[in-house]
Amino acid sequence: MSPIPYGRQHITAADIAAVTETLQSDFLTQGPKVAEFEQKFAAYIGARYAVAVANGTAALHLCALALGVQPGQRVITSPITFAASANCVLYCGGEVHFADIDPATALIDLQQVRQLLERHPRGYFHGLIPVDFAGLPVNLEEARQLADEFGLWLIEDSCHSPGGSFTDSQGREQRCGSGQLAELAIFSFHPVKHIATGEGGMITTNSEALYQDLLKLRTHGITKDPAQMQRHDGGWYMEMQELGYNYRMPDMLCALGISQLERAEAGLARRRQLAARYDAAFAPLPSVRPLAGAAGHAYHLYVIQVPDRKGLYDFLREKQIFAQVHYIPVPAMPYYQQLGWQPGTFPRAEAYYAHCLSIPMFPTLTDEQQDYVVACIQEFIRQQ
Ligand SMILES: *Cc1c(COP(=O)(O)O)cnc(C)c1O
Questions:
Q1: Which of 246, 261, 276 lies at the terminal end of a domain, its last residue?
Q2: Across residues 180-198, what is the average pLDDT?
């Protein structure tokens, strides 16, 4: 059996052809594939606008900038996420706060968020960054109600959930990143994500104003649109109107993204099939506790909790199965501890971290490979 990672990209001949074609075209950076990827991605997600950027972290940074995060502002996110969900606030000089998770899902617990909000005067917090952890969509309808009640904006970190959805209280399907409930949503195209371009990211929104601002921020704060300029000296003229960055996604990677997007639904279906097979395999094993599932789950990860996580991790490595831990709680990172976060502040996140393990989950994982993973876990559990 060849080594089995917890996640991996899938590159087809069509992907390679799409990239090669772009390499032979006139555009290496901002060519026609950027707008085409943005339009197709927006259509897939169900949002009005999409802005392609260098990676998911850049997407978060631009969202925080576009929403005006600045020194003195406070933003809440989940302790169980990739550090970038929190770091984007720090990039803008803001302060990050956390609310503990729901132990059944490992998603930020909106009741905990409410309690945190109620302990402070209205206006103390400015935004909330919920994360669709592992691919399970946050109930954004509830998050929106909370945000409206306390005057917050929302950035949905949808890196794990392209194609995911939840059913709202009216029975409507709410797709992750569709811009219906959160001002902005972000995605990443890192190799382990659903759509893999190496580096790459996307922001989706239904707000024309945020969209226009993001386009500018992505490219140094410069506009070349005469309608937006204060004066017009000639054909060469452009204006830098705010402090932006070079967070562009190149044309060849957008071509790869377009090609990958065509397989997104098939990949999602396979992820859900694999999750159902794991669910069935672990049902008779009380010491293997998978995180709660749901109909619209996008299964970026399949996470189990076991009593001896380190033991299982090491055992699987010996069997050439490379499981991973998602995540070390962000406030437990030395950098965040230095900012004042004390161990013990988020007991549920810490308890989850002590036992969680992400086992192989990617569309090209075969039934045979998955059966081997399950057999190895069963073998480890029997030895306990
Ligand atoms: C991958 C990821 C990011 C960052 O994306 P990059 O493209 O690696 O910068 C942010 N948030 C979450 C939840 C992620 O999984």
A1: 261
A2: 98
